[in-house]
Sequence to fold (156 residues):
Amino acid sequence: MRQVRLIGSDGDNVGLVSIEEALERAKDDGLDLVEISPNADPPVCKILDFGKYKYEAAKKANEARKKQKTIDVKEIKMRPNIDAHDYDVKMRSIKKFLGEGDKVKVTMRFRGREMAHQELGLAVLDRVREQFDEDAKVEAMPRLEGRQMTMVMAPK
Fold:
């Protein structure tokens, strides 16, 4: 005859009882017998309302999902010969994104003959990296993909 450790409907420990007796007690209370810890020796069972238990577990899971922070990747696009003011505006955006906990993908786009002077684009990306040295870490160093050079930064 298998035995289980039974926890009553009011939360008190009843002790070791047979499975039949545990089912009988649950039936008397008008509740369900739920196996809480199957790997324990002997298994632990509790007398409770299973529908209510499932509802509260789903509610807890939903609450935990609400509190999760999803990390987005924001993209900032530039050109190699970017003007000083335009550069400053982009830097403010990057600072705001990093402050919100998002990753930032900085894309340097080359058009036409700018492809011949990729070092200018690399210099701008290096300037960005140096400016945010204490606020962010570079996850992906600048690399050329077709006509654009990309770099990914994440908040520290």
